Amino acid sequence: MFYSRFTLSLAKVGVAIAVLPALVACGGGSDSNSDNKVDQGETKLPTSVPELTWLGESSAKLKKASSGEFSSLLKNGVYLNSRPSDKNDSSLESPVNASPVSEGESSNQFSSTNVVESGVDEGDRIEYDGNYLYIAAHSAQELAQNAVFKQYVRVMKRTEQGIEEVERIEASENLYSQQELYLNDGRLASVFKYPVLTLDVSPASSSTASDTSVVANTFLNTFELSFADVTTPEQAEVLKQYRVDGNILDSRVINDQLYVISEFDANYSTELSDDLAVYQALYQLNVSELLPKITDLETGTVSPLFDPSSCYIPEDTVVTDSANTITTITKISMQNPSSVQSTCINVPTDGVYASQQSIYLHKRFWPSDAVSFDDLSQTALHKFSIADGNITYSASGAVEGSLGFGSNFGGMIEPLIVQNVSDAAFRLSEFEDKLRLVTTRFSETKGMVHQLFVLEQQGTNLELVSTLPNESQPTPIGKVEDNGMVEENIYAVRFMGERAYVVTFRRIDPLYVIDLSKPAEPVIAGALEIPGYSAYLHPVSDNLLIGVGQNVGDFAFLSEPAVVDNNDDDTSNTVFPEIGAKVSLFDVSNMTSPTLIKEHVFAGGYTPVEFDHHAFSWVKVSDQEFRMTLPVESWEATILADNSSVWGNINELAAFEVNTENSGSLTYLGSSIATYDDPTNSVPYVRASDDRGVIHGDTIYYIHGNFVWSSLWQSPDINTGPF
């Protein structure tokens, strides 16, 4: 397989948008350099189109651009994107969300959203404050199907009988496939992502397919933000609603501020066909008309999302460079959602990592036009400080390899063994003013090259402190096969303080423990090989680690028999391994010799925790007791009277308890299973990826679709519901 810069590229699709009249920004500042004032004779129209080039992706440091510099770079990019002959020359990739994990916060009373970094909240489909449960719901998951699709938030209150609905909040009239919630001191924020087209099949419309039409209130390439006052949840009131142009990459809440990172491709629609005429039209255009807009849905006020004078561009940009992709970091106060501040960066972004002090934007790029059998891609990093309440550029840098993401087109871009199997969010961690990260690339001679980097800010540079493997520690991360190559990809990474845990997998699951106590001298302290893999790692204590993944070999029918401990009486059997979701407890008290304490396998099942850490709920009851839940979905065939079979799914919320005394123990208590009293044909299919659990004292709430089931911790299989 040949690799080149263009191997990573996607042809940019020039989606034409109508250019709207200029609008006055509220609080956005003036744009004194956006208009080239030809009519006043202050400047002349260009008489030819200069030789423009797309701005190459790199790790160049950023600089604060003047309005003129930003306007020139953006308009050049819009011009190139508007010309048919240039649309296939883009070096931009599609945005990839990386949401998509360091220790979250959970009180001793009830579980909360499982997050990447302590003190950095993430949006999820549920929020819980100990008395009220908020569920992002929609009409497609109701038992009585509604002809008109609706999105809303169910507000549920704890009662002696279980839990009951006390209010519904309809935060958007438009159609988005995902709604994420944030709860912060009496305020509930809804983040609506990924607009969808839905056919209008309401009773008022014709029943024929040819007469169905796309619902009008769908806004493509937008996202929406809604803020509600839930100080008294029974009387919830929507305070502010925004619609924003662009595609959302990710969001966080830090210190009562909602940070939204989005990406926007500026475009220009015109009937002009002559290249010079198009270039002259853009030359005269006010740049604000090319910017993403933010619309206050209550007042109808439309404003540019940012002031062009608040933008950053690569410091090595020249006047003929062109770039029409804009990344924006927008900060909105949860308590005063009228307070909006945005900073723009005229470069594309793949994903986001955030700590309490910093936001990092990362982007995979190809550093040269060289063609190679090796993957020479790098990851660019741009650091922004949020410590003082402002969004301020700090530093940039780059490392070899990628964070496990990128457009793959089913294996055409990379070899089949290079798959997108690990969450990029787990691969970064800021600790004691240093950034640690793990990347992957492919080498023709070495196979998968997994590297750990430690970076430190020096001035405006993210300088390399150390890397692993290195000359003194050359052992690869990943098992070396007989052919001398590493064929295992990374399935999980978890940074915790002065340690990093890395799971690689192809046939077996090596769990690596990396000692980072000396940042300049990282070392692989120990490793453990077991069947299957862990896709999510969660620390219980300094000595115990939970792994969630799959018990699976390279090929199930070739699996060798193994000793499997899957019984609560601590007995073992030599059997062929069961294929299914697996929960493991590891002893990592001795970094040089991690061991498996116990594991439990759900035969034929999978858990969404493997790809979404929000599905994992936990609470530390005491220094000795740790409780956790995770959803599991499995399928089974029911044999009917005529010997035919019907396949059906079983959805459950599994409850586990970890005792940290002595060497530690893992106990499976049972599962709360989602069952309905209504006939089967009236129950909608709800995918397990949206399932969540809440632990509150000795009560478990299982959220499946729009509904809730309640059970006691000691007997999770005996539940009541749906509520």
TrEMBL record:
Residue ranges, annotated region (Disordered): 82-116
Compositionally biased region (Polar residues): 91-116
Record keywords, A-Z: Signal
Record InterPro entries: Beta_propeller_containing (IPR019198)
Signal peptide positions on this chain: 1-24
UniProt name for this protein: Beta-propeller domain-containing protein
